[in-house]
Design brief:
8 helices, 2 domains, Dihydrodipicolinate Reductase, domain 2, 14 strands, alpha/beta
Length: about 350
């Protein structure tokens, strides 16, 4: 029997942090020995949300009172530009799994352009593995520092990277249309934006100017040897709490058939427990992925045979954040990848 791994979660009272605690509390190899929060101290998580997963957990304490010597891992479910301050304190003292954007980008100049100057340890950018589990599994194994991808990038990169690596699609004109539940904006999201006295709202935002574009571009270009990948990205907020669907429009390369794409995704699901290819007669919607760590993929015909529509769906709080973080943890510790996630 493997010894229990002592785990701390900082930012445990946010949407992602609370999901992370739920998953870790059911993990047979994990002992949660510290729960931190920026704003809520001196009470228990089940005082905030009464679920059985929060029973018998540590008292909430200030994030900055955490001592790295007390745990084997720290999960940082903290906002961008905050997480790096804790990494500076704990680097090389503990295994770090960061769920913010602070260590996803390879270039500080690109980080600064998208997130500002507040980064206290840019020299550590090179020391974090990009935690897209299905793509970087070998790099994550035995890694000490992991940067968990964003939710939009996860839903986009999982279907696109295999297509690009295998030279199945044209990389010059990819169109990505994504829709997310409002939980992706965090607890500070203004609910008045999506609910009025009379109706619910739905809108796009930051079209072709979203922070995640840099992350998507960085990772796609790593797998494209010939040309820079060119795409447009239009994200939307729905009046749903959780869930994310990305619809991707692309052109097939010469000689590539729809059956080649189907075979690729069917083979991917054989070696990746959280990728599921959905056949024509199955429904792919928010209900089919909510509260799961799956990325489900379905393809549709375009008006000509040389074009294809790909729909990718995830739970933004699980596969797009907390679940993927635990999946990376399992891989890094060389234990069953699906543990506590199925």
């Amino acid at each position: 029997m493997k010894n229990k791994i002592r785990v701390a979660v900082l930012g445990s009272t946010g949407y992602v942090g609370m999901e992370l605690v739920k998953i870790l509390s059911n993990h047979s190899f994990v002992d949660i020995n510290f729960l931190g929060s920026e704003s809520i101290h001196g009470c228990y998580l089940n005082n905030i949300e009464n679920t059985k997963e929060y029973n018998q957990l540590p008292l909430l304490k200030p994030n900055d009172s955490f001592n790295a010597e007390d745990s084997n891992y720290v999960f940082l479910a903290l906002p961008h530009a905050v997480s790096n301050k804790y990494v500076k304190k704990y680097f090389d003292k503990i295994n770090i799994i960061d769920l913010s954007a602070d260590f996803r980008l390879d270039s500080f100049d690109i980080y600064k352009k998208n997130y500002g100057n507040e980064h206290e340890c840019k020299e550590y950018l090179k020391d974090f593995i990009y935690g897209l589990a299905e793509i970087n599994r070998d790099k994550i194994l035995n890694s000490n520092n992991i940067a968990v991808p964003g939710c939009y990038p996860t839903s986009i990169l999982l279907p696109l990277i295999p297509l690009i690596k295998n030279k199945l699609i044209d990389t010059k004109n990819i169109i990505i249309d994504s829709k997310s539940g409002y939980s992706g904006a965090g607890k500070k999201f203004d609910f008045n934006k999506i609910k009025s006295k009379n109706d619910y709202n739905f809108y796009n935002y930051n079209t072709n100017n979203h922070r995640h574009i840099a992350e998507i571009k960085q990772e796609l270009n790593k797998h494209n040897s010939n040309n820079e990948v060119k795409f447009s990205f239009n994200p939307h907020i729905l009046p749903n709490f959780r869930g994310m669907i990305s619809t991707i429009y692309c052109d097939l390369n010469n000689g590539v058939q729809k059956t080649d794409i189907i075979n690729l995704f069917q083979n991917l699901q054989k070696i990746n427990p959280f990728i599921k290819y959905i056949d024509d007669d199955e429904v792919l919607d928010f209900f089919s992925i909510q509260k799961s760590n799956y990325c489900k993929i379905k393809i549709f015909d375009h008006y000509t045979e040389d074009k294809l529509i790909i729909v990718s769906a995830i739970d933004n709080l699980i596969k797009g954040a907390a679940g993927q973080a635990v999946q990376c943890f399992n891989i890094a510790e060389n234990i069953e990848e699906t543990l506590s996630l199925i």
